[in-house]
Amino acid sequence: MTGCAGGDGEDSPAGAEERYYLSLGDSLTVGVQPSEGGPAETPDGYTDILYRTLYDADSTLRHERSGCGGEDTTTFIEGGIAHCEEQYGGRPQIEAAEEFLSEHAGRVDLVTVTIGGNNFTRCVRGIDEVGGGGGPVVDTECIDDGLERIETEAPVIASRLRAAAGPDTQIIGMTYYNPFLAAMLLEPGENPSDEPSEEPSDGTPVDPEAGPGLGEVEGEIPFDATFAGYATEVLETMNESLRSAYAAEDIEVADVEAAFDSADFDVPQEGSMPNNLQAICDYTWMCNTDLGPDIHTNKAGATVIAEEFASLAR
Protein backbone atom coordinates (compact mmCIF):
# COMPACT_ATOMS: atom_id res chain seq x y z
CA MET A 1 0.00 0.00 0.00
CA THR A 2 1.72 3.16 -1.17
CA GLY A 3 2.43 5.50 1.72
CA CYS A 4 1.48 3.00 4.44
CA ALA A 5 3.57 1.84 7.33
CA GLY A 6 5.66 -0.94 5.84
CA GLY A 7 4.70 -4.58 5.96
CA ASP A 8 6.48 -6.51 8.70
CA GLY A 9 6.39 -10.05 7.39
CA GLU A 10 9.37 -12.39 7.20
CA ASP A 11 10.76 -13.49 3.85
CA SER A 12 8.50 -16.03 2.17
CA PRO A 13 9.83 -19.49 1.29
CA ALA A 14 11.40 -19.66 -2.16
CA GLY A 15 8.78 -20.04 -4.87
CA ALA A 16 5.84 -19.48 -2.52
CA GLU A 17 3.21 -16.95 -3.49
CA GLU A 18 3.18 -14.08 -1.04
CA ARG A 19 -0.11 -13.72 0.83
CA TYR A 20 -1.25 -10.71 2.81
CA TYR A 21 -2.88 -9.70 6.05
CA LEU A 22 -4.00 -6.06 5.80
CA SER A 23 -4.68 -4.21 9.06
CA LEU A 24 -6.61 -0.92 8.99
CA GLY A 25 -7.83 1.55 11.55
CA ASP A 26 -6.76 3.81 14.38
CA SER A 27 -4.03 3.90 17.03
CA LEU A 28 -4.94 0.46 18.40
CA THR A 29 -4.02 -0.93 14.99
CA VAL A 30 -0.48 0.41 15.23
CA GLY A 31 0.17 -0.29 18.91
CA VAL A 32 0.26 3.25 20.24
CA GLN A 33 1.42 3.38 23.86
CA PRO A 34 1.99 6.28 26.25
CA SER A 35 5.58 7.22 27.00
CA GLU A 36 7.44 10.04 28.69
CA GLY A 37 7.80 11.67 25.28
CA GLY A 38 4.12 11.31 24.44
CA PRO A 39 2.10 8.61 22.64
CA ALA A 40 4.21 6.50 20.30
CA GLU A 41 3.73 3.55 17.97
CA THR A 42 5.14 0.22 19.13
CA PRO A 43 5.50 -3.26 17.60
CA ASP A 44 3.16 -4.65 20.25
CA GLY A 45 -0.28 -3.68 18.99
CA TYR A 46 -2.99 -6.30 18.72
CA THR A 47 -2.38 -6.56 14.96
CA ASP A 48 1.31 -7.35 15.55
CA ILE A 49 0.45 -10.04 18.09
CA LEU A 50 -2.21 -11.45 15.78
CA TYR A 51 0.20 -11.47 12.85
CA ARG A 52 2.79 -13.44 14.80
CA THR A 53 0.13 -16.07 15.50
CA LEU A 54 -0.95 -16.16 11.85
CA TYR A 55 2.65 -16.35 10.62
CA ASP A 56 3.33 -19.36 12.79
CA ALA A 57 0.63 -21.16 10.80
CA ASP A 58 1.55 -19.73 7.37
CA SER A 59 5.04 -18.39 6.73
CA THR A 60 4.01 -17.05 3.30
CA LEU A 61 1.88 -14.39 5.00
CA ARG A 62 3.02 -10.78 5.00
CA HIS A 63 1.53 -8.13 7.28
CA GLU A 64 0.66 -4.90 5.47
CA ARG A 65 0.48 -2.78 8.61
CA SER A 66 -1.71 0.21 7.97
CA GLY A 67 -3.64 2.27 10.50
CA CYS A 68 -3.05 5.77 11.80
CA GLY A 69 -3.39 7.27 15.26
CA GLY A 70 -6.29 9.70 15.54
CA GLU A 71 -8.42 8.32 12.72
CA ASP A 72 -12.18 8.33 13.29
CA THR A 73 -14.94 7.20 10.95
CA THR A 74 -15.05 10.57 9.18
CA THR A 75 -11.32 10.96 8.56
CA PHE A 76 -11.07 7.29 7.54
CA ILE A 77 -13.37 8.13 4.63
CA GLU A 78 -12.61 11.78 3.94
CA GLY A 79 -9.11 12.41 5.29
CA GLY A 80 -8.31 15.55 7.19
CA ILE A 81 -5.51 14.47 9.55
CA ALA A 82 -2.25 15.73 8.11
CA HIS A 83 0.10 12.99 9.35
CA CYS A 84 -2.35 10.29 8.21
CA GLU A 85 -2.75 11.79 4.74
CA GLU A 86 1.04 11.99 4.46
CA GLN A 87 1.19 8.29 5.31
CA TYR A 88 -1.35 7.46 2.60
CA GLY A 89 0.09 9.59 -0.16
CA GLY A 90 -2.38 12.45 0.29
CA ARG A 91 -5.44 10.19 0.34
CA PRO A 92 -7.83 9.01 3.01
CA GLN A 93 -7.07 5.60 4.51
CA ILE A 94 -10.06 3.97 2.80
CA GLU A 95 -8.78 4.93 -0.66
CA ALA A 96 -5.30 3.60 0.07
CA ALA A 97 -6.86 0.35 1.30
CA GLU A 98 -9.00 0.04 -1.81
CA GLU A 99 -5.93 0.49 -4.00
CA PHE A 100 -3.98 -2.16 -2.10
CA LEU A 101 -6.85 -4.63 -2.31
CA SER A 102 -7.20 -4.01 -6.04
CA GLU A 103 -3.49 -4.42 -6.73
CA HIS A 104 -3.31 -7.63 -4.67
CA ALA A 105 -6.65 -9.13 -5.68
CA GLY A 106 -6.88 -12.81 -4.77
CA ARG A 107 -3.84 -12.65 -2.48
CA VAL A 108 -5.27 -10.94 0.62
CA ASP A 109 -6.34 -13.59 3.11
CA LEU A 110 -7.45 -11.30 5.92
CA VAL A 111 -8.40 -7.68 6.53
CA THR A 112 -8.92 -6.33 10.05
CA VAL A 113 -10.44 -2.94 10.77
CA THR A 114 -10.65 -1.00 14.02
CA ILE A 115 -12.43 2.32 13.68
CA GLY A 116 -14.89 4.42 15.67
CA GLY A 117 -13.32 4.94 19.07
CA ASN A 118 -11.87 8.32 18.17
CA ASN A 119 -15.35 9.63 17.43
CA PHE A 120 -15.49 10.24 21.20
CA THR A 121 -11.96 10.87 22.47
CA ARG A 122 -12.29 14.64 22.03
CA CYS A 123 -15.59 14.72 23.92
CA VAL A 124 -13.91 14.57 27.35
CA ARG A 125 -12.20 17.85 28.16
CA GLY A 126 -9.73 18.55 30.95
CA ILE A 127 -8.86 14.96 31.77
CA ASP A 128 -5.15 15.83 31.98
CA GLU A 129 -5.56 19.18 33.70
CA VAL A 130 -4.93 19.61 37.40
CA GLY A 131 -7.54 21.57 39.32
CA GLY A 132 -9.85 23.38 36.94
CA GLY A 133 -12.86 24.09 39.11
CA GLY A 134 -14.32 20.68 39.75
CA GLY A 135 -12.51 18.49 37.25
CA PRO A 136 -13.04 17.43 33.63
CA VAL A 137 -16.36 17.42 31.81
CA VAL A 138 -18.03 15.45 29.03
CA ASP A 139 -19.61 17.28 26.09
CA THR A 140 -22.84 15.36 25.40
CA GLU A 141 -23.41 17.14 22.08
CA CYS A 142 -20.01 15.84 20.96
CA ILE A 143 -21.03 12.34 22.09
CA ASP A 144 -24.28 12.54 20.12
CA ASP A 145 -22.38 13.67 17.03
CA GLY A 146 -19.91 10.80 17.40
CA LEU A 147 -22.71 8.27 17.62
CA GLU A 148 -24.48 9.74 14.59
CA ARG A 149 -21.31 9.61 12.51
CA ILE A 150 -20.71 5.97 13.42
CA GLU A 151 -24.29 5.09 12.50
CA THR A 152 -24.01 6.71 9.07
CA GLU A 153 -20.33 6.18 8.23
CA ALA A 154 -19.60 2.66 9.51
CA PRO A 155 -21.91 1.19 6.82
CA VAL A 156 -20.03 3.18 4.17
CA ILE A 157 -16.68 1.86 5.42
CA ALA A 158 -17.97 -1.72 5.57
CA SER A 159 -19.52 -1.55 2.11
CA ARG A 160 -16.44 -0.08 0.45
CA LEU A 161 -14.09 -2.57 2.08
CA ARG A 162 -16.25 -5.51 1.06
CA ALA A 163 -16.54 -4.23 -2.51
CA ALA A 164 -12.78 -3.75 -2.75
CA ALA A 165 -11.86 -7.04 -1.07
CA GLY A 166 -14.42 -9.18 -2.89
CA PRO A 167 -16.72 -11.81 -1.42
CA ASP A 168 -14.06 -14.38 -0.57
CA THR A 169 -11.66 -12.30 1.53
CA GLN A 170 -12.22 -12.56 5.26
CA ILE A 171 -12.76 -9.20 6.95
CA ILE A 172 -12.99 -8.86 10.72
CA GLY A 173 -14.01 -5.71 12.58
CA MET A 174 -14.27 -5.25 16.32
CA THR A 175 -16.36 -3.77 19.06
CA TYR A 176 -14.69 -1.45 21.56
CA TYR A 177 -13.95 -1.60 25.26
CA ASN A 178 -14.88 1.32 27.52
CA PRO A 179 -11.78 3.12 28.88
CA PHE A 180 -13.91 5.82 30.51
CA LEU A 181 -15.13 3.35 33.13
CA ALA A 182 -12.02 4.53 34.97
CA ALA A 183 -14.17 7.47 36.05
CA MET A 184 -15.60 5.09 38.67
CA LEU A 185 -12.35 5.54 40.61
CA LEU A 186 -13.19 9.20 41.16
CA GLU A 187 -15.41 10.83 43.69
CA PRO A 188 -17.84 13.45 42.30
CA GLY A 189 -15.78 16.49 41.31
CA GLU A 190 -12.43 14.74 41.75
CA ASN A 191 -9.76 15.21 39.07
CA PRO A 192 -8.33 12.12 37.31
CA SER A 193 -4.82 13.60 37.49
CA ASP A 194 -5.02 13.00 41.23
CA GLU A 195 -3.89 9.64 42.58
CA PRO A 196 -6.90 7.31 42.04
CA SER A 197 -8.19 4.87 44.58
CA GLU A 198 -7.10 1.28 44.12
CA GLU A 199 -10.60 0.15 45.01
CA PRO A 200 -13.99 1.69 45.77
CA SER A 201 -13.66 3.46 49.11
CA ASP A 202 -16.34 1.47 50.94
CA GLY A 203 -16.70 -1.62 48.78
CA THR A 204 -20.21 -0.63 47.74
CA PRO A 205 -21.13 -2.01 44.30
CA VAL A 206 -21.30 0.67 41.62
CA ASP A 207 -24.81 1.58 40.52
CA PRO A 208 -24.64 2.07 36.72
CA GLU A 209 -27.94 3.96 36.85
CA ALA A 210 -26.77 6.50 39.41
CA GLY A 211 -25.96 9.18 36.85
CA PRO A 212 -27.72 10.53 33.76
CA GLY A 213 -28.73 8.25 30.92
CA LEU A 214 -27.98 8.72 27.24
CA GLY A 215 -30.36 11.33 25.82
CA GLU A 216 -31.42 12.61 29.25
CA VAL A 217 -29.08 15.61 29.37
CA GLU A 218 -27.71 18.26 27.01
CA GLY A 219 -24.51 20.20 27.32
CA GLU A 220 -21.79 19.19 29.74
CA ILE A 221 -21.82 16.55 32.47
CA PRO A 222 -19.02 15.84 34.98
CA PHE A 223 -16.46 13.14 34.29
CA ASP A 224 -16.58 11.43 37.66
CA ALA A 225 -18.01 8.37 39.40
CA THR A 226 -21.56 9.17 38.20
CA PHE A 227 -20.48 8.92 34.54
CA ALA A 228 -20.24 5.10 34.36
CA GLY A 229 -23.84 4.38 33.37
CA TYR A 230 -23.90 7.06 30.67
CA ALA A 231 -20.59 5.82 29.26
CA THR A 232 -21.91 2.26 29.16
CA GLU A 233 -25.00 3.31 27.21
CA VAL A 234 -22.81 5.19 24.73
CA LEU A 235 -20.54 2.16 24.29
CA GLU A 236 -23.44 -0.23 23.75
CA THR A 237 -25.08 2.10 21.21
CA MET A 238 -21.79 2.56 19.37
CA ASN A 239 -21.00 -1.14 19.27
CA GLU A 240 -24.49 -2.05 18.09
CA SER A 241 -24.04 0.34 15.15
CA LEU A 242 -20.71 -1.30 14.32
CA ARG A 243 -22.16 -4.82 14.55
CA SER A 244 -25.05 -3.89 12.29
CA ALA A 245 -22.84 -2.23 9.69
CA TYR A 246 -20.43 -5.17 9.59
CA ALA A 247 -23.12 -7.85 9.51
CA ALA A 248 -24.70 -6.24 6.45
CA GLU A 249 -21.45 -6.82 4.53
CA ASP A 250 -20.60 -10.29 5.87
CA ILE A 251 -17.84 -8.89 8.07
CA GLU A 252 -17.19 -10.84 11.25
CA VAL A 253 -16.83 -9.09 14.59
CA ALA A 254 -14.29 -9.68 17.35
CA ASP A 255 -16.29 -8.99 20.50
CA VAL A 256 -13.80 -6.93 22.47
CA GLU A 257 -16.65 -5.37 24.46
CA ALA A 258 -17.39 -8.78 25.97
CA ALA A 259 -13.73 -9.75 26.34
CA PHE A 260 -13.23 -6.68 28.55
CA ASP A 261 -16.41 -7.45 30.60
CA SER A 262 -17.60 -3.96 29.61
CA ALA A 263 -21.17 -4.31 30.91
CA ASP A 264 -20.34 -6.39 33.99
CA PHE A 265 -20.67 -4.18 37.08
CA ASP A 266 -20.60 -7.13 39.47
CA VAL A 267 -18.19 -6.83 42.40
CA PRO A 268 -16.71 -10.31 42.98
CA GLN A 269 -15.86 -9.71 46.62
CA GLU A 270 -16.21 -6.94 49.16
CA GLY A 271 -13.77 -4.12 48.64
CA SER A 272 -12.81 -5.15 45.10
CA MET A 273 -13.48 -3.36 41.85
CA PRO A 274 -16.38 -4.18 39.54
CA ASN A 275 -15.30 -6.69 36.90
CA ASN A 276 -15.47 -4.16 34.05
CA LEU A 277 -13.38 -1.59 35.91
CA GLN A 278 -10.84 -4.25 36.87
CA ALA A 279 -10.46 -5.16 33.20
CA ILE A 280 -9.85 -1.52 32.26
CA CYS A 281 -7.18 -1.21 34.95
CA ASP A 282 -5.59 -4.52 33.92
CA TYR A 283 -5.67 -4.02 30.15
CA THR A 284 -5.25 -0.27 29.57
CA TRP A 285 -3.29 2.69 30.92
CA MET A 286 -6.36 4.46 32.33
CA CYS A 287 -5.51 3.65 35.96
CA ASN A 288 -1.79 4.33 35.61
CA THR A 289 -0.79 7.63 37.23
CA ASP A 290 2.78 7.67 35.87
CA LEU A 291 2.01 7.54 32.13
CA GLY A 292 -1.79 7.78 32.19
CA PRO A 293 -4.62 8.15 32.25
CA ASP A 294 -4.41 6.92 28.66
CA ILE A 295 -7.13 5.08 26.73
CA HIS A 296 -4.80 2.70 24.87
CA THR A 297 -4.35 -0.95 25.73
CA ASN A 298 -1.17 -2.16 27.33
CA LYS A 299 0.44 -5.34 26.00
CA ALA A 300 -1.88 -7.53 28.08
CA GLY A 301 -4.93 -5.77 26.63
CA ALA A 302 -3.56 -5.98 23.09
CA THR A 303 -3.08 -9.71 23.61
CA VAL A 304 -6.71 -10.13 24.69
CA ILE A 305 -7.88 -8.32 21.55
CA ALA A 306 -5.54 -10.37 19.33
CA GLU A 307 -6.96 -13.56 20.80
CA GLU A 308 -10.51 -12.45 19.92
CA PHE A 309 -9.45 -11.89 16.31
CA ALA A 310 -7.44 -15.13 16.18
CA SER A 311 -10.47 -17.11 17.29
CA LEU A 312 -12.27 -15.97 14.13
CA ALA A 313 -9.42 -16.01 11.60
CA ARG A 314 -9.50 -18.90 9.18
Number of strands: 8
Outline = globular
Q: Strand pairing plus helix content: what structural class? A: alpha/beta
Biggest β-sheet strands, sense, barrel: 5 strands, parallel
C-alpha Rg (nearest Å): 20 Å
Write a structural description.
The protein has helices at about 45-55, 75-80, 80-85, 95-105, 140-165, 230-245, 255-260, 275-285, 300-310, and strands at about 20-25, 60-65, 110-115, 125, 135-140, 170-175, 220, 250-255. It is α/β, with parallel strands linked by helices and about 325 residues long. Strand 1 (about 20-25), helix 1 and strand 2 (about 60-65) form a beta-alpha-beta unit.
Short précis:
This protein has 314 residues and is an alpha/beta fold.
Strand and helix layout:
Layout: E1 19-25, H1 46-57, E2 61-65, H2 73-78, H3 82-87, H4 93-103, E3 108-114, E4 124-125, E5 137-139, H5 140-165, E6 170-174, E7 220-222, H6 228-247, E8 252-254, H7 256-259, H8 275-283, H9 299-310
Parallel strand pairs: 1-2, 1-3, 3-6, 6-8
Antiparallel strand pairs: 4-5, 5-7
Helix pairs in contact: 1-9, 4-5, 5-6
Notable features of this structure?
three-stranded antiparallel beta sheet; five-stranded parallel beta sheet; globular; disordered N terminus; 314 residues; alpha/beta
